[in-house]
Amino acid sequence: KAVVSTQSTGVVKVMCVSRGNVRPNARLYYTSTSPGSNPVYSPQDTYPIVGYVTSGGFCLSSGQGAGIGLILSSVWSAMNKEGVLLVRNTTTKHYRYVRVEAVK
Questions:
Q1: CB-CB contact of 29 with 46 (8 Å)
Q2: Rounded distance between C-alpha atoms, residue 4 and residue 29, angstroms
Q3: What is the pTM of this model?
Q4: Using CA atoms, how far apart are residues 25 and 28, in angstroms rounded to an integer?
Q5: Are 47 and 32 spatial neighbours (Cβ–Cβ below 8 Å)?
Q6: In the 8-state DSSP scheme, what is residue 4?
Q7: Residue 86 C-beta-side C-alpha neighbours within 13 Å
Q8: Tens-digit pLDDT profile for residues 21-40
Q9: Number of CB atoms found within 10 A of residue 42's CB
Q10: pLDDT for res 46
């Protein structure tokens, strides 16, 4: 598992691909699978942690869950500054797909 505070990080905008909401302190996980409409359920952390959401909630202007987060710069550069990750809020075992892109 990655520890974000000991490595350099990048600030990203996080947006839910389908339904769901992003809460503060949610964990961002790397996945090589493509987004699906259904959440992924896993009782244990089976994906590597690559970052955290620092603030999040429901965005009324876009009609979806959104937030700001930090991810490891090594993962960020490998994703070419945008891509798809999984997010899991601290109160659930369901993973949801999110799009991440650079904060401008």
A1: no
A2: 12
A3: 0.80
A4: 9
A5: no
A6: G
A7: 23
A8: 899 999 999 887 777 655 67
A9: 13
A10: 74
